[in-house]
Design brief:
This protein is an alpha+beta fold. The chain has one domain. 27% of the residues lie in helices and 15% in strands. The protein is built from five helices and four strands. A four-stranded antiparallel beta sheet has the order 1-2-4-3. The longest helix is centred in the middle third of the chain and has 18 residues. The protein is globular and about 55 Å long.
Length: 164
């Protein structure tokens, strides 16, 4: 797919309404994400994208491509009695995918940002980045919900410096 370019310069689509996804109910979580209001990387503790980053300066997404279809088939062989929901459960694949994203972020800092001047977040939706539309505008269509391919996306940009 796009594995030869896991970092691309983008024009971020900021929409603070995206943070509403954090409280949208989903199976077994009637109040949305259990990290909402608890984790510092989550709303309301984390700042909005346009407050933390200077969106007029170059911005990037760093991403990894996780072969969810292959993972599901492997789990289907190991657990033939599991339901589709169990086979796709993020508890069984997200840790590995996030580790791969962390590796891509480290590679980004070594090759594109050796002075580590750019601030990176691995939870840009919590800050109001419309990841789906930002990636679509960059030529990468996300499967939603993911069936074959799952992408984890980090955002990198220049921190906003307030004039005093």
């Amino acid at each position: 797919m796009h594995s030869n370019m896991p970092t691309i310069r983008i024009t971020p689509l900021f929409d603070q309404k995206v943070r509403g996804l954090c409280v949208k109910p989903y199976p077994l979580h009637p109040h949305g994400c259990p990290n909402f209001g608890k984790a510092i990387r989550c709303p309301p503790a984390v700042g909005l994208l346009d407050e933390v980053y200077d969106l007029q300066k170059p911005s990037y997404v760093i991403y990894n491509i996780f072969d969810l279809g292959a993972h599901v088939e492997k789990m289907r062989r190991l657990h033939p009695n599991w339901s589709e929901r169990q086979l796709y459960c993020c508890l069984y694949w997200q840790g590995k995918a996030r580790k791969e994203l962390k590796s891509e972020v480290e590679k980004f800092h070594r090759t594109k940002d050796p002075m580590k001047e750019l601030l990176v977040t691995t939870c840009p939706e919590a800050m109001g980045l419309n990841v789906t539309e930002t990636m679509r505008r960059a030529g990468i269509k996300l499967e939603w919900p993911p069936v074959e391919i799952a992408l984890q996306v980090a955002f990198a940009g220049i921190p906003r410096i307030e004039k005093t």
